[in-house]
Write a structure and sequence with these properties.
Type Iii Antifreeze Protein Isoform Hplc 12; alpha+beta; 10 strands
Length: 218
């Protein structure tokens, strides 16, 4: 009798252990790498405790607002190692707002201020003399740096920045691409509160007519 009771208790405990569940966050749809995760992209499903993936999230509230570091298939449990709270860690694409594009501005042959990801910069275009009279104009103002592309370096040497990656609208991308194809583009680091004053641009004639410069007839 005692043996039967013990056996029954053992079976009951094993059944409870096998039937116990824990919520596990799974993807509702296929999520590409470097994508922002919304609460609607995730749901919690009951998962047997014994087979719950290690490091799995428990529900949408733990995943929403983070960024995927790798593709996640629909129905796949979402692990902590698959997500990051920092969009830059998820790649440049994750840092882009809807309607924006990432454009690389080569800076290997022009002076570069000490810019970092997250800084706001202006781009200044200087037309080559081969394309006509040289002129300098503000090309695009107040754009965010979302990445820095480093040049390859020899062993033991520090790599320099080869290109500054900026987030721009499509029309700004066209202006910058034109400037790069027809002259040189310089990166100017903005203050924390950038100026919104318009500029008229500078050519050789207007430069030497500024206050303090002698006129052509002097």
């Amino acid at each position: 009798m005692a043996f039967s009771a013990a056996a029954g208790l053992f079976v009951f405990i094993q059944f409870r252990a096998l039937s116990a569940t824990v919520p596990v966050a799974v993807a509702v749809r296929d999520l590409p790498a470097h994508a922002a995760v919304r609460a609607a992209d995730v749901r919690a499903l009951p998962w047997p405790v014994r087979w719950a993936p290690a490091g799995s999230l428990r529900g949408p509230e733990e995943a929403a607002g983070r960024f995927t570091l790798q593709p996640v298939a629909a129905g796949q449990p979402i692990l902590k190692s698959m997500l990051s709270a920092d969009p830059r860690e998820g790649g440049v694409r994750a840092a882009l707002e809807p309607g924006m594009q990432a454009l690389a501005v080569p800076v290997a042959d022009v002076p570069l201020p000490p810019v970092r990801v997250g800084d706001v910069v202006d781009l200044v275009y200087v037309r080559s003399r081969l394309e006509g009279p040289s002129v300098a104009r503000l090309l695009v103002r107040g754009i965010e740096v979302v990445g820095l592309q480093e040049a390859s370096a020899a062993f033991g040497q520090r790599a320099g920045v080869e290109a500054v990656i900026v987030a721009v609208r499509p029309d700004q991308a066209e202006r910058i691409a034109y400037g790069l194809a027809n002259g040189r583009v310089f990166v100017a680091l903005d203050a924390y509160v950038p100026s919104a004053e318009p500029t008229a641009g500078v050519d050789e004639r207007s430069l030497f007519q500024m206050e303090g410069w002698p006129s052509d007839g002097s």
